[in-house]
């Protein structure tokens, strides 16, 4: 997919937004800037406050404190029906007493465009979501995927500045979900509208977004591009939530402004970039390395950076094999994923093994 | 066991048939005797006639009673449906402590003996110093209608997805516009159905009306008064037949509307199923 040129104009500015229910804070001092034309995802486990934040942007709920601005305009006191945002609901919220066309035209009615223009825009929106010809279908005569498209068309036809999507794909089966991920991304690039997607599926967020905000317990832990979130998570929680990560205990030898030199038992002395959120807590630190960044060294191949150990478990997953390797000195065995091209699926349990790694793949993590 | 089951399976249809005959035969007699020339309800029928029906509009007392009944029926239907809407919306929309208890209390008049209800209402009205009139009858009827109204309305409102109203607001519609374009069309069938059911109940209700009315009779009270005169019986039968047919039609329409409303709102959440 070609990278669309993106400008740096701010579309949404969320500053110090807190939403409390009594003593409980569903959202705790969240600050965020979302750019125009960006595909932005809010990612986090269930109950972390994603929907709460999205509903406050849409105007269904108000911050206890803090401000939200859309396109430079403060949203305080502006009701949902006068905001330049539209939402695709998790339940789709298709009006059951209207057919597809009437659903899509629902919001246009108030704009008084005239019958011809209204019809043209409805047709255009239906074409955008590949529903041409289904305009006369009743709301009950649609499959889950089609309902999702109607909800999308109904919001897009309004040409909002921001489209909000609350877990739009979670009700679909796996295959349809993957197909819709691609389509949604393509659609966003075609229309150029700022999309904010709420999801708890890390692969969905990684595959679709320009940038991701990872949230835990009402707080925003990290905002970055998918690649950076995956490769340079700021803390153990983020690292753990986005796929598997091996954690290695380390001793800090040297700390300065941007880098960290640590000693580990398995990987020796390593120099890494210091994460922004890093707070020194005694002399210890944690290093992380993704399972796929460890590669099996066959026969007499060697690498400048390697660790040696013993295979204690092997799990077969078709195109890859998952090995659990015990390394002397490390308190926890390492997870390794290796493609099966060279026979990783045939390595016997108990066999000695050597693993190569790139020291850049070792990242220091805040706790 | 199997022996008993055999006997049961053989005789059950017969029992069911007998039951239905016993339940509905008297009802069938009403229209049959209402077209009989002889004033006494006996077989064999003398001759067929529509004379009794023709006489109905020429009875001023009957016209008055009909007008009273219509007024009471419409007022009771409107009041109990409005109250029912409030209760049904609260019960289906919000989760609050005592929700079940309140629901139970509202439904209670369904199982209380009507005569007890009527006597206690009479006592209360007199205590409050209210003069007995059609207004007091309306109050009494509202009490017995609300349980029906509530059950019709809750089945219509249940499953009404809150996000439909939010979606409407999100698409730029005002609160009033949302009510008109989304809420009302979706719950209208249930509301009309509740109005029809309440109207029918009020129209046919005798005991409470008998205790709470002053000098103005409703139709059932008028009918009861006429029964003292043997010669008036055919007219009563004709009137009864009309009431029967009217009630049956209204209730059928009401049930069709209720089902339509329930189907509509339930399908709104179909994406989850
Ligand atoms: N009306 C409310 N009253 C009290 N607590 C609430 C209310 N709405 C939400 N919460 C709480 O706020 C927290 C965040 O809720 P939110 O719906 O934003 O989570 P989420 O991240 O969208 O989760 P999910 O992935 O399950 O949808 C939850 O712990 C929830 O219980
Ligand atoms: Mg949510």
TrEMBL record, chain B:
<feature type="transmembrane region" description="Helical">
    <location>
        <begin position="132"/>
        <end position="153"/>
    </location>
</feature>
<keyword id="KW-1003">Cell membrane</keyword>
<feature type="transmembrane region" description="Helical">
    <location>
        <begin position="70"/>
        <end position="92"/>
    </location>
</feature>
<feature type="transmembrane region" description="Helical">
    <location>
        <begin position="12"/>
        <end position="33"/>
    </location>
</feature>
<dbReference type="GO" id="GO:0005886">
    <property type="term" value="C:plasma membrane"/>
</dbReference>
<keyword id="KW-1133">Transmembrane helix</keyword>
<dbReference type="InterPro" id="IPR051789">
    <property type="entry name" value="Bact_Polyamine_Transport"/>
</dbReference>
<keyword id="KW-0813">Transport</keyword>
<feature type="domain" description="ABC transmembrane type-1">
    <location>
        <begin position="66"/>
        <end position="254"/>
    </location>
</feature>
<keyword id="KW-0812">Transmembrane</keyword>
<keyword id="KW-0472">Membrane</keyword>
<feature type="transmembrane region" description="Helical">
    <location>
        <begin position="233"/>
        <end position="257"/>
    </location>
</feature>
<feature type="transmembrane region" description="Helical">
    <location>
        <begin position="190"/>
        <end position="213"/>
    </location>
</feature>
<protein>
    <submittedName>
        <fullName>Spermidine/putrescine ABC transporter</fullName>
    </submittedName>
</protein>
<comment type="similarity">
    <text>Belongs to the binding-protein-dependent transport system permease family. CysTW subfamily.</text>
</comment>
<dbReference type="InterPro" id="IPR000515">
    <property type="entry name" value="MetI-like"/>
</dbReference>
<dbReference type="Pfam" id="PF00528">
    <property type="entry name" value="BPD_transp_1"/>
</dbReference>
<dbReference type="GO" id="GO:0055085">
    <property type="term" value="P:transmembrane transport"/>
</dbReference>
<dbReference type="InterPro" id="IPR035906">
    <property type="entry name" value="MetI-like_sf"/>
</dbReference>
<feature type="transmembrane region" description="Helical">
    <location>
        <begin position="104"/>
        <end position="126"/>
    </location>
</feature>
